Amino acid sequence: MKNLLYIFSLIFLPGILFSQVSFDLEKSKIKWTGKKITNASHWGSLYFSEANLFFDGSELIKGKFIVDMNSMTVDDIQGRGKERLENHLRNDDFFGVSNFKEAILEFDSKSKLSNGEYSVNANLTVKGITEPVVFKLKPKGESFIANLIFDRTKFNVTYRSGNFFENLGDRLILDEVELAVTLVK
Predict the structure, then answer these.
(1) Which of 48, 67, 54, 41 shows the shortest CA–CA distance to 155?
(2) Could you identify which of 14, 55, 69, 156 might form a hypothetical disulfide with 97, taking C-beta atoms 3.0 to 4.6 angstroms apart as the criterion?
(3) What is the Cα Rg of the chain in Å?
(4) What is the pTM of this model?
(5) CB environment 133-142: b (16+ within 10 A), e (fewer)
(6) Are residues 129 and 100 in contact, defined by beta-carbon separation less than 8 angstroms?
(7) Quick one: which H or E segment has residue 87?
(8) Burial 35-49 (b: 16+ CB within 10 A, else e)
(9) Phi and psi at residue 80, to the nearest 5°
(10) In this structure, what are the phi and psi dihedrals at residue 71, rounded to the nearest 5 degrees?
């Protein structure tokens, strides 16, 4: 009987105590921005294959997001240049999408700030490498927004990085990648 109660509590209690918020995967997206030393930049979109937040009452307790790296687009240019850059970003010089189809962000620690934002400590996995990141997550109506900056070189994305190559001049690409995330219910 004790075993039956234990199994029952494992299956049903988390659903009673915690609520899960899933997001519309077609409407939710990430705008990425990469910059060169010259202040020139490229930007585009990434889409989620999974996006969930978990709450204990009104307190955010954890989140899990999986990004489909094949969904990566370049949105600031068109035509052949767009196609070339998308393919280049997907190849092994950058994100190696044929071998690393997903990027994952998971967290289970948070602290609510007085202005309604959450300061989140998370683990970001790109190209099979996991590194800690910190960002702010803000409710906006029925949605959430977040801005996150990560150092691509920590994930073995070193193409034209000044930390790995010399004499790049104006061809140097900055190491920081900016992500503007919109999560829509």
Answers:
(1) 67
(2) 69
(3) 19
(4) 0.86
(5) bebebeeeee
(6) no
(7) helix 79-90
(8) beeeeeebbbebbbe
(9) -65, -35
(10) -80, 0
Type of residue at 39 = N
The tens digit of pLDDT for each residue in 64-105 reads 999 999 999 999 999 999 999 999 999 998 999 999 999 999
Q: Which residue has the tokens 């490229």?
A: 42
Under 8 Å between Cβ of 120 and 107: yes
Compute the distance between CA of residue 157 and CA of residue 122 in angstroms, rounded to an integer. 20
Q: Where are the beta strands (DSSP E) in the chain?
A: 19-22, 29-36, 41-56, 59-74, 102-112, 118-126, 129-140, 143-151, 173-183
